[in-house]
Hints:
By secondary structure, the protein is of the alpha/beta class. Helices cover 37% and strands 7% of the residues.
Amino acid sequence: MVGPGRMNLRLRCLSSHACPALAFKYPLLQPYLQAGAFDYNYGANFASGGTTASNDTSRNPIYLLNQVAQFVRFKQSATSQKNQFACHAFKQFLPRNDSYGEGLYTFEIGGNDVLNAILLKNQTAAQVVTQVIPDAMMNILATIKILTSNGAKKFLFFNTPNAGCSTIAMTVLASIPGLQKDDMGCIVFINELDQAYNKALNDTIASARLLYPGRTISIFNYYAANLEILTNPSLYGFNPALTKRACCGAPGFGTLNFNPLVTCGNPGSNKCANPEEYVNWDGVHFTDAFYRQIALWALSGKFTDNPVNYTSLCKLDFRNFAKSSTYNSVYPQSCRVTFT
């Protein structure tokens, strides 16, 4: 249940896209805090952009433990309403009682902990390692404890991808004197911090498996998967010349079409005509094509510690997964809720 600061009951596509929902032929999971959202029959989306695993409120106050608290309130309210109104029509839009134990809780969180500390809070690498990461791990372990006490049995965590290769980091930090870069031009110290976070996550999950036997707690190696795409982009349909460049952005601040003063969607920004060839969408987030490939790997158990092949287990069919597909275009008669 969590992602760039995210938590989801059951599945949704990584980073606010639709791939897993498409794979399971479910409607897109509605956000818990969205006005007008009401259909939680297939799960709920507790994601909140820019949030962190640690108690960092520099960009968004809804950090991980607050998202978990929202889930607990949601479960209590939904269960109460289903029990109170035996014939209430609204019941059809609430999760089944067994969903909390049978659902898959997905988490993609941690990247903002590192980048917020460096880009927004001017913390040192040493402070990230000794303060930020331990705080994040403490909250992740607390999250698993709370969710298992609420019946959760299946967890899928995504570690952090190599943000030193992200468009925003390579642009904003490029002017630092003596900045060390690797053979791909990625910023070494940012990638080292991501690796430190991922090592701590491995240790934390190892502890959780001992504390909560009988639960399936998996880790998708987002760092390795991202590196595979950056190393061999043409194998997955990406243009090798475009792996670091933002599809949607603006010039004037470096060479990668990312300008922190004119971000994607604002006046003066531009959008590429071939986003399926790009890895990066807006300098910060990946493209649909990238997330689609990540979802295919994650659902089949590739790049995963303690893997579960949900593609086989749930008989998922990806043949209709056109790279630019939407839920309605793939399953035009099955979406239950449409917002206008």
